[in-house]
Design a protein that fits this description.
The complex is a heterodimer of chains A (486) and B (508). Chain A contains 20 helices and two strands. In chain A, 62% of the residues are buried. Chain A is globular, with a radius of gyration of 21 Å. A two-stranded antiparallel sheet of chain A has the order 1-2. Chain A has 486 residues and is mainly α. In chain A, a hairpin with a 3-residue loop joins strand 1 and strand 2. Chain B has one domain. Chain B is an all-alpha fold and 508 residues long. Chain B contains 19 helices and two strands. The radius of gyration of chain B is 22 Å and the shape is globular. In chain B, helix 2 (26-49) packs antiparallel against helix 3 (85-104), helix 14 runs antiparallel to helix 16 (402-415) and helix 14 runs antiparallel to helix 18 (459-477). Chain B starts with a helix and ends with a helix. Classes of the chains: A mainly alpha (486), B mainly alpha (508). The A-B interface holds A 383, 388-390, 394, 398, 401-402, 405-406, 413, 416-418, 420-421, 424-425, 428-429, 432, 435-437, 472-474, 477-478, 481 and B 71-74, 111, 140-142, 144-145, 147-148, 151-152, 155-156, 168, 171-172, 175-176, 179-180, 183-184, 186-187, 190-191, 194.
Amino acid sequence: MSHSATLALLAISPLILVSLTVIVVMLSIAWRRNHTLSATLTAIGLNAALLALLFGWTLGPVDVTGLLVVDDLSRFGGVLVLMSTLACLTLAHHYLEGYDGPRDEFYLLLSSAAAGGLVLVSARHMATLFFGIELLSMPLFGMLAYTFRDRGALESGIKYMVLSAAATAFLLFGMALLYAVTGTLAFDELGAALATYGSDAWLLAGAGMLLVGLAFKLSIVPFHLWTPDVYQGGPGPATTFLATASKVAVFLVLLRLFQSALALHEGWWSDLLGFIALITMLVGNLLALTQNDLKRLLGYSSIAHFGYLLVALVVNDGLAVETVGVYLVTYVLTTLGAFGVVTLVSSPYIATGGTADASPLHHYRGLFWRRPYLTAVMTVSMLSLAGIPFTAGFIGKFYIVAVGVEAHRWWLVGGVVVGSAIGLYYYLRVMVTLFLHEPGMQRRDATHDWAERAGGMVVLGVATLVILLGLYPTPMIDWVHWVAGS
Amino acid sequence: MTLVWLILIPFIGGLLCWQAERFGDQAPRWIALATMLLELAMVLALWAGTDFSLPATGAENAWALEWQADWIPRFGIQVHLALDGLSLIMIALTGLLGAMAVICSWREIVRRVGFFHLNLLWILGGVVGVFLAIDLFLFFLFWEMMLVPMYFLIALWGHSGSKGSSRIGAATKFFIYTQASGLLMLIAILGLVFVHHAATGEYTFAYADLLDTPLDETTAWWLMLGFFVAFAVKLPVVPLHGWLPDAHAQAPTAGSVDLAGILLKTAAYGMLRFALPLFPEASQAFAPVAMTLGLIGIFYGAILACGQQDLKRLIAYTSISHMGFVLIGIYAGTELALQGVVALMVAHAFSAAGLFILSGQLYERLHTRDMRQMGGLWGRIRGLPGFALCFVAASLGLPGTANFVGEFMVMFGTFGVAPWIVAIASLGLILAAIYSLFIMQRVYYGPPAEETSFGGLDRRETVLLFGIVALVVLFGVYPQPLLETSAGAMQIVQHTVERAGAMTGGAQ
């Protein structure tokens, strides 16, 4: 084997390890069904992949055929994807203990989706982009509808499937148009071609459709309609994965597209994107205002957060890449905290036939007086989502405002301020609900030993990280700065 | 390190209170009191040990104490704390009012005592941080951070008020007002930092470096507005005051004491420390507008105070009126007016705290704050009405009280700059007399609603109130120590204003 081939194999070894995990877990299920064994095997495989990823950092940027590139950005994305997958895994183990159907396959789906995420963050060709997105989404249908006897979960899975089909159609059509005009599918060649062809109508149509496809996945207004239903209905661990790993991977590929291919520096193009960012943050926040369901509320809040993130893409200059990195880290940590608490309160799963999880807000009323530390986690997550100082979320918001101010995008900065002010209202509402002393109507509680379980520890660790990074963000900033700089 | 400890002590004390709850309800109270007294003792020791009366050389900030450490080198952000006469007075005030807040909620708060004191002390810790931070990032962090415990204080221990206004609604309103305006300040801070970056090629949030950022007129104007709006919401200046009456009316007594006594002062402090020195020319140009807003505040607050039925809302509106004087004094920019602002802030902290504590004590006895249900209380509660008379007299600015000193100095200092503003503002003093006498008349005199008498003041309450009265009179008769301490800091502000005036004057 030639040297370059070895290097390439080493560079994509995390992907290979995750795929191997899928096969091993599948065989182990075929041999004997054992919930804990499957979970442990998956955890080992994912951890091995994470280690391989971290050690692979010494290799520097590696091109793997014309399809994948393993550079700092993709390793950064890989770390986020694998970390959130691991968190979902620990949450899922506790959650699924109450499920009476087959439990082991969830881990198969989870690791397949993680593999899709890994492909996506390394994609530098439309083929791998498409492949990655499908590999990420297909298992998610299964995960979202995993507890399919609940109408909510089934509805969530089917809705996500229909939307994904639509998104895929847009994506493929867009790619086809781009190919028809330029004759290439590699990102960098596309970028060069776009520069020469200028504003060819077919080219713009293709680029637009591509964006629509990705916007569906990121639930950017006006392609957000599926989000609240899917978030609300899906089982806790699956929603957590959808909200973290899946979004991060898609956003990173979008960032890569913007860096190489779609950098259309025409005024109206970035104005249009700016407008989309503006309405995304406003609509997300406004619709969240009246929600009485925590998971729906978090769904709308995630729409708003991706609106903020789009500001960095609109600017696409200066601090932009660093901003995306920092914001994604803080977003993932915070979201893991918030959904982690929801999942822990809903664990173990209890079949209801409707929506199984403890998602209505009144379940959480007075949680502080029963589970003070779990409530502390939730409070920290809410404060961080609202971007209050001394939480990681503030550092993210600081970057967004900074990038907007630096580029003099005053409308967007104004949008962030208005959005945050609106957002405060519902984050505070959730927070104060936790501390009210009136008993809730249908109490649902985390088990007493939640803090000793892996899922509980992960959630506590995440909350601690949110606080630590809020107090001393330098390590994170240095890391991301280094990733963005190279 | 003393400065770091000044910030850390309330935070640590708060955590201890929270954990001490398991040893019973008394433990958190004593711990909180001890924490605040320790804080106060440290500040007083600093005060005694440092000479603040030295006039500052030129316009350089002469800090009595300074502490810095790298924090986020990527953006040149440091943990940079510094103390001068102004911040010392404010921190001493924080410690004192903090202790009072703990004492006055001794009986009032019976549910979740530990968590209550955690929030109370964390507010105070945040406020101390605001008064010490001279890195703009750090300042902003403390500025926003202190809102969270205040929110909990109002939302969880507040009174559900009259006419459907809920305590959670009031708390949310308070939070959104201040947070959103705070974000405007963040934008202004970042704008300033990027202008500085464009000029020098390095990121820094350090106060001393940003002071000499070259700004063109329009930029300076917008950035100054960003700071001003944030401070104006907190002060509050009239079109932005919507949160204040609700927050006061629903907050527990300790919350009101902190809110009126210290939190409002952070805004005036911010103007003196940041808005004026960072943008002297723009502030100079803005001064007539600001003074007019102050004037509107004086009358608006006073007139609305006259029409209130809820005792705490009434006091809240009088705060708006008093803060109008503060705003006028700040933007007058003469040394006398600025010194008057300091005196007035201290005086108002005492008189407003006293009035709020009294209304809290009335509420404990009468279970209402509605003045229509009061009346004739003079003979029915032993001791309390006498103190009320003292604080009302202070609030209307009777000579011999600290409030008189403050208002007089502000007016006197402003007269040379804006005689008409002073002439109109002094009419506001008449309204102050009217609403003050309204309080006495409606609550304590007139025909009693019933003949039954209520329990008199116990020793804790008497000592607390007597202490405040003593301070009001002390600084009313002999304000010199206060003025000497703040002289250096105020001279620096005055120099900046003067230079800006000379420059804009020269340009015309």
